[in-house]
Amino acid sequence: MSNTDLLTPYAARWYTAAQARALPPAGPTFSGTFTVALQGGSALELPLRVLPGGDKAIALLMSNQTPFAVEDALAPLVTAAAASLQPEVIAAVPTMGLDYARLVARGLGLADYVALGHSRKFWYDEALSEAATSSTSTQGKRVYLDPALVARVRGKRVVLVDDVINTGVSALSAVRLLERAGAEVVGLTVLLSEGHAWRAVVGELGAGWDQRVRAVGHIPMFEAAGDGRWQPMAGTL
């Protein structure tokens, strides 16, 4: 049996603030799912996925696999977080940031948004790219800005949107790329921050840059606690 045969179907569930208050208190260990508190009092239940090696796990948000009802509930929260940074342009960190960046831009009344990407089209300029990896996809890849979109970001206050920030490498690459194109990147809005390793990485952009990251909720990393259960890793809450 392969690893893919062992995976249960992906499922995420959103709770209103009233429903979240009625949930039983979370224990010190978890099995199967983890429920994260969100801005405004609502909550999001996510499946736990075991990482290669078998001794660590993550609460997995797959933004392109959640029900539309979950997306509809979360989009206004991300939009409110982005609005606090007063953006003129919204840009997406690929690939999981694409759905929410589009919704945030529409929610802010903007005419369009900027989608960064990993696929190099034939007219792209390698100078408008940065190396990037993520915690869930460790293969070497690059993030690109379409040269046709440079005018859309040059001299503008840009806020990046992503679903989760973990290592911070994808965010760092996206910021550097946009700054090279002449953008003033004023912050990053995410659904969830995961652990705290990302703080030092985005700190390479300048002192206090981690304070420009606005998250709707925070999730820890997990380690095995025995009997098929998981506990938050020290220092990641």
UniProtKB/TrEMBL annotation:
Keywords: Glycosyltransferase, Transferase
Glycosyltransferase found in the keyword field: yes
Signal peptide: none
Superkingdom per UniProt: Bacteria
Pfam families: Pribosyltran (PF00156)
Domain Phosphoribosyltransferase per the UniProt entry, residue ranges: 83-199
GO MF assignments: glycosyltransferase activity
InterPro entries assigned: PRTase-like, PRTase_dom
CDD domains per UniProt: PRTases_typeI (cd06223)
NCBIfam families cross-referenced by the UniProt entry: PRK06031.1
Record's protein name: Phosphoribosyltransferase
Classification lineage: Bacteria, Pseudomonadati, Pseudomonadota, Betaproteobacteria, Burkholderiales
